[in-house]
Amino acid sequence: MSPLSDVDEEFSLGKKKRKTTKTKTRTKTKAEKTKVTATTKISKRSRIKDAVPDQDHVVDVAGQDVVNEDVKPQADEESSSPSKTKTKKPRKPRAPKPEPVYIIPDVERKETKFRGRLGYACLNTVLRNKKPASDAVFCSRTCRIDSIKKNGIESVKELGRKNVQDLITMIQWNEENSIRFLRVSSNMFPFASHPIYGYSLSYASDLLSQAGALAAKYGHRLTSHPGQFTQLGSPRPGVIEASIRELKYHTEMMELMGVGKDGVLVIHGGGVYDDKEKTLERLKETIRDKLPRNVRERLVLENDEMCYSAEDLLPICEELDVPLIFDYHHDSLKPSSFPPREIIRRTNAIFKRRGIRPKQHLSEPRPGAESLMERRAHADRCSSGLPTELEEEGVGMDVDLMIEAKDKEQAVFELYRMYGLVPCGEENLRPPNPNQKKETNGRKSNKKKQNEDGKVKAKSPRKKGKAKKIVDMDVESDEDESIDLGEDVEEDADSDEGDGEDGGSEPKQE
């Protein structure tokens, strides 16, 4: 072989060697880069994780960090990335809302000889509006029939227990604020008089006894006003039976509280059913012949503004020795042919014979009310003051006066301040609504509305979408299936009858 060929061969081999060397260097460089990258990751992780040992991790060729299964990680090494180890700053607690400051306007000062008690119906606005809502106090929690079917009768009984517990709270609050006359809600025990789901109140006898004992200790008077569906003069036997069941339920409640004769049950005459005289005869027959004795001993009648005036009811009351509650507001809308003084003297005589303390009702129409339907609705307060009849001995000086006003105990406080009857603590006073309207937020009449030309207004189209879901349990209601006794009635926009909580209405005239 020639020297030249040896040189060529050497040159070729050198070339190959150099290529091989470059290839190895390149491979080594990638491995080094991979190792450097992995080392950097481990170094960063180690600083964050308080120096994790190298043997706990294996780095694959893709630079992925794999935990060695042979070595158990420490409790503080569970997080795999620094971003996940960040903790949120604790939320600062909300500052409590400051107590509202009420500006109470002064009232016109007047004088009176009245020395009786003033009371309110069923609901206390201060206690009902306590915050949070879970602290609210009221006695008319109710439910639906479907809830009883689903949850059992014990669920509705529990509502009754809660109502009585809150009644005890209300009695104590009343004593602390010098109010010693209260109408107990008819919804204390939902569906207690129902023909299928009705139940005895004996299960709550201990609580009822506590409520009655507290009222007796302080000298408070407790009464009740069964709903407008209690129709003892109805031509339908089923309605009369249901009405008697309702009165029995109220009587049982009063007896378990140990309330004496003054715990009366107030009802209206009801509808006229196209013939007032025959209806009055049915009413008289039911009271005389069908009511149990303990129910009849508590029953009193009241004049209303649509069907029966005091003059209509007084002859039955005198014949059966059933007291008549005189309602000043109703008498102004459906007056008798003789003055209130004469009616009050005659009915007070019945109260005296029966050994029951006289009781009257006071309210006034809402501002701006003109039509009969508008004037029926009760105002927020009795700003006109006490009627002049209460100034006369033997008429109204020493009676218990139920204030049927929307502001409940606040209406009583205003009369206390107006006549200087009782000192009122500032902490429980609330200002009147300056924008009181003649309409109320109660249920509206189902009569068809007419335009000025007499044509019936067209109904507005119903909006599409799902209706609001009704919450069944632990809610406040002033009318439900438990007091619907099957009578057709006209729904009023507002009334304090029955529960006195924007519920109730007078039966329509037929």
Automatic annotation (TrEMBL):
<feature type="compositionally biased region" description="Basic and acidic residues">
    <location>
        <begin position="48"/>
        <end position="59"/>
    </location>
</feature>
<feature type="compositionally biased region" description="Basic residues">
    <location>
        <begin position="14"/>
        <end position="28"/>
    </location>
</feature>
<keyword id="KW-0378">Hydrolase</keyword>
<feature type="region of interest" description="Disordered">
    <location>
        <begin position="355"/>
        <end position="390"/>
    </location>
</feature>
<feature type="compositionally biased region" description="Basic residues">
    <location>
        <begin position="85"/>
        <end position="95"/>
    </location>
</feature>
<protein>
    <submittedName>
        <fullName>UV-endonuclease UvdE</fullName>
    </submittedName>
</protein>
<dbReference type="GO" id="GO:0005739">
    <property type="term" value="C:mitochondrion"/>
</dbReference>
<feature type="compositionally biased region" description="Acidic residues">
    <location>
        <begin position="473"/>
        <end position="504"/>
    </location>
</feature>
<feature type="compositionally biased region" description="Basic residues">
    <location>
        <begin position="457"/>
        <end position="468"/>
    </location>
</feature>
<keyword id="KW-0255">Endonuclease</keyword>
<feature type="region of interest" description="Disordered">
    <location>
        <begin position="425"/>
        <end position="510"/>
    </location>
</feature>
<feature type="region of interest" description="Disordered">
    <location>
        <begin position="1"/>
        <end position="99"/>
    </location>
</feature>
<dbReference type="GO" id="GO:0009411">
    <property type="term" value="P:response to UV"/>
</dbReference>
<feature type="compositionally biased region" description="Acidic residues">
    <location>
        <begin position="1"/>
        <end position="11"/>
    </location>
</feature>
<dbReference type="Pfam" id="PF03851">
    <property type="entry name" value="UvdE"/>
</dbReference>
<dbReference type="GO" id="GO:0004519">
    <property type="term" value="F:endonuclease activity"/>
</dbReference>
<keyword id="KW-0540">Nuclease</keyword>
<dbReference type="InterPro" id="IPR004601">
    <property type="entry name" value="UvdE"/>
</dbReference>
<dbReference type="GO" id="GO:0043504">
    <property type="term" value="P:mitochondrial DNA repair"/>
</dbReference>
<dbReference type="GO" id="GO:0016787">
    <property type="term" value="F:hydrolase activity"/>
</dbReference>
<keyword id="KW-0227">DNA damage</keyword>
<feature type="compositionally biased region" description="Basic and acidic residues">
    <location>
        <begin position="372"/>
        <end position="381"/>
    </location>
</feature>
<dbReference type="GO" id="GO:0006289">
    <property type="term" value="P:nucleotide-excision repair"/>
</dbReference>
<keyword id="KW-0228">DNA excision</keyword>
<dbReference type="GO" id="GO:0005634">
    <property type="term" value="C:nucleus"/>
</dbReference>
<dbReference type="InterPro" id="IPR036237">
    <property type="entry name" value="Xyl_isomerase-like_sf"/>
</dbReference>
<keyword id="KW-0234">DNA repair</keyword>
